[in-house]
Amino acid sequence: MKKITAVLLFLLLVLSLAAGCQTGDKDTTTSPSPTATASAEPTGEPTEGGDDDGKLSLPLVDEKTIFSGWITSSAIVTQLYTELNDNPVFKELEEKTNIHIDWRHPAEGGETEALNLMFTSNEFTDIIVTLDPTYYVGGFDKFIDDGIIHDLKDLVNNYAPNFLNTIKKDETVYKQLHTDTGHLPAFRMMLTDRQLCYLGYYARQDLMDAAGYTKTPTTYDDFHEMLTALKGSTSKQPLYLFEDILIPGYGVNSNFTQVDGKVVFGPITDEYRAYLEMVAQWYSEGLIDADFMTRRHFFLDFGEFLNESFAVYPMTVAFYDVFVANGLDIKVLPYTKLNEGDKRYINSGSAETTLQGATATITTDCDDPVLMTKWFDYLFTEEGSLLGSYGIEGQAHTIVDGKPVFTDLIMNNPDNLTPGDAKNAYAFPMLMPFLVMTEREVDTFSEGAVKATELWDSDWDIANSRTLQGDLTADESFEFTSKYLDIETFVSEFKAHVIAGQKQITDETWNEYLNEIKGMSIDRCIELKQEALDRYNNR
Asked: What single DSSP character describes residue 85?
């Protein structure tokens, strides 16, 4: 159970990447001012730590220099350390660069509130590191225009050649990193190669064998046949419902997407109606978890998969080896489609580019943004990438045939840390913007886990992705939120009632539902999203 708990904490970190907006205790930690004394605006002249052509030389500065940093908390970091600088990689990084970061950690669950309090106080740490850009409510342009964070464009062009070269390798990434006005607001975590899909459905092979079901379901009809065969094999119903994995085969989701450059709100489409009708039918047959409306998240309920409450369960690839280690024979299920051979256009766990969530900005309170820029740039050098990805050579990894290989400190940790947790303990946790060597994310997986990512990713049509891009302005965001929150609540309640059989979908009830949403100004919400998409496409 200790092993499972540790992995759960790691996965909660992954989950918080998508959550973004929570509330909690007020953070009252203070941090010292930096000792660097250069101008807050880039001068165009290199400071210590770089040659005239912008190349880095170490240490970056002759004397120890202190900056303050705010970084999103995570369960795994607070479990392993008192603070981030206890990680040996951060100590090594300080030794190499001569830069010390005094990290300020907000209370777990209170990150958004703590960050907003700092913004309203008008006193900022030198750098701010978050799990994703959504922490900047109203968009990066607002925070640049309000004088809170720097536009990094000139700083990066002059002093961050490694980061610049990294983001220029993919035109889509370069576009996504810039705002509608052309600002470059943040350093971002990048992968050396696109990561394969990390999320999908698992089935218990022992229960499938007992039920006599030997096929691999590829269509919704197959999936229904499998669940029907599994009915009665578990203490609850066969399927733990997780829409993000089940719905993509219909080509929509419960949010906004785009098709050929036009914004689509999934819950008002015929495809979404068909999906609801299918799931409601399955529920009425006793195939879907009767408590689906009160479930918080599958990360918290995985023990029920172990104890045979469910036969089919959603989970990240990191849990494949956890389930196997607990004695389960796992069958990995492909994403389900309407027709065999269909492609998946709705993203659920697949990477579309090498761009990742972790985000770092330099605030206008930073006395030496040039030096801070060079510090971040080091994390995108070959040496910095290796250090962040695999930790210290001789401790966390060795070089075998020219490639880094994790040591037993990671793979068979003496403190019973899982390999995933050990990576966070002895290399960079997935909080920092740095160039992640993608291999490190699968080096700790078994062959079966790697094959799971390959199967889940095999149907993903990146070229025709329906993911919606674009950022709302501050004014647009305020207007959108004031309208959409009620729509979102109404859609969620309607969906729950339909699936649970409390409301039947007929042409009459569906039209009433559509008219209700229309009356809540969904057309205006779509219009705002369309304007943001058009601006993005014109960047």
From this structure: G
Q: Are residues 218 and 108 in the same domain?
A: no
Domain-located, residue 31: no
How many other CB atoms are there within 10 angstroms of residue 47's CB atom?
Answer: 18
**Cβ within 8 Å of residue 10, ≥6 positions away:** 75, 76, 318, 418, 420, 421, 424
| E-assigned strand segments in 96-234 | 99-104, 127-130, 187-191, 199-204
- Verify that 402 and 486 share a domain, yes or no: no
Give 51-87 pLDDT, tens digit per residue. 444 468 999 999 999 999 999 876 556 567 888 899 9
Residue 333 lies in a domain: yes
Question: Where does 426-479 show beta strands of DSSP type E?
Answer: 435-436
Kindly state whether residue 116 falls inside one of the protein's structural domains: yes
- The count of residues in the chain is 539
Cβ burial, residue 261 (10 Å; 0-12/13-18/19+): exposed
d(C-alpha 390, C-alpha 89), whole Å? 9
Nearest-CA neighbor of 188 among 199, 178, 200?
A: 178
Boundaries of domain holding 53: 2-24+49-194+353-436
Alpha helices, DSSP H only, in 391-429? 408-411, 419-426
- Both 210 and 66 in one domain: the answer is no
Q: How far apart are CA 264 and CA 346, in angstroms?
A: 12
Residue 133 belongs to some domain of the structure: yes
As a whole number of angstroms, the distance between CA 265 and CA 251 comes to 12
How many structural domains does the chain have?
Answer: 3
Please write the tens of the pLDDT for every residue from 494-535: 999 999 999 999 999 999 999 999 999 999 999 999 999 999
Task: Please check whether residues 346 and 484 belong to one and the same domain.
Answer: no
Contact between 105 and 29 under an 8 Å Cβ cutoff? The reply is: yes
Let me know the angle formed at the C-alpha of 151 by 116 and 54, rounded to the nearest 5 degrees. Answer: 130
pTM value is 0.84
CA 468 – CA 478 distance, rounded (Å): 19
* Cα–Cα distance measured from residue 30 to residue 302, given in angstroms and rounded to the nearest whole number: 38
Co-location of 87 and 236 in the same domain? no
Which CATH number characterizes residue 72's domain?
3.40.190.10
Specify the DSSP class assigned to residue 188.
E
397, 390 in Cβ contact below 8 A?
yes
234 with 145, same domain: the answer is no
Give the whole-angstrom CA distance, residue 160 versus residue 370. 9
